[in-house]
Specification:
By secondary structure, this protein is an all-alpha fold. The protein has helices at 11-18, 23-36, 40-50, 56-73, 78-88, 95-108, 111-120. The chain starts with 10 loop residues before the first helix and ends with a helix.
Length: 121
């Protein structure tokens, strides 16, 4: 597998890719958004939407991208994100991706807040 720099996507093009139904295109769009989209709140909501995908590879990338957003924007809505990730940890197919995302979120956000919300959810 080779690393490929994600394409720059504006919201309109991202929406086309995200609605394509093609898991590859959706994953690529999620990564591009998490790394390049200036509207972190919008990108977060997109990732949360795809965290519920029926495709495990898309769920895994959605979790990973939430970690990217924490690193880049340092402004996630932890009250929304943490409970979703906690629920995703029950999915053995993607638990490792979720754990990595949580580690990133704890590193770049307030660890205590993450742990408090985790315990309460």
């Amino acid at each position: 597998m080779r690393y490929k720099e994600p394409d720059q996507l504006n919201k309109e093009l991202a929406e086309v890719e995200l609605q394509s139904g093609d898991p590859y295109r959706i994953r690529e769009a999620l990564v591009a958004l998490s790394l390049n989209e200036p509207d972190g709140e919008w990108a977060q909501e997109v990732c949360l939407t795809f965290a519920a995908s029926s495709d495990a590879s898309i769920r895994a990338i959605a979790a990973t991208c939430l970690g990217h957003l924490a690193r880049i924007h340092r402004a996630l809505d932890l009250n929304k994100v943490v409970p979703v990730l906690k629920n995703m940890m029950q999915d053995a197919e993607i638990a490792g991706y979720v754990e990595t995302a949580l580690d990133d979120i704890k590193m770049f956000m307030d660890r205590r807040t993450v742990e408090r919300i985790w315990a309460e959810s």
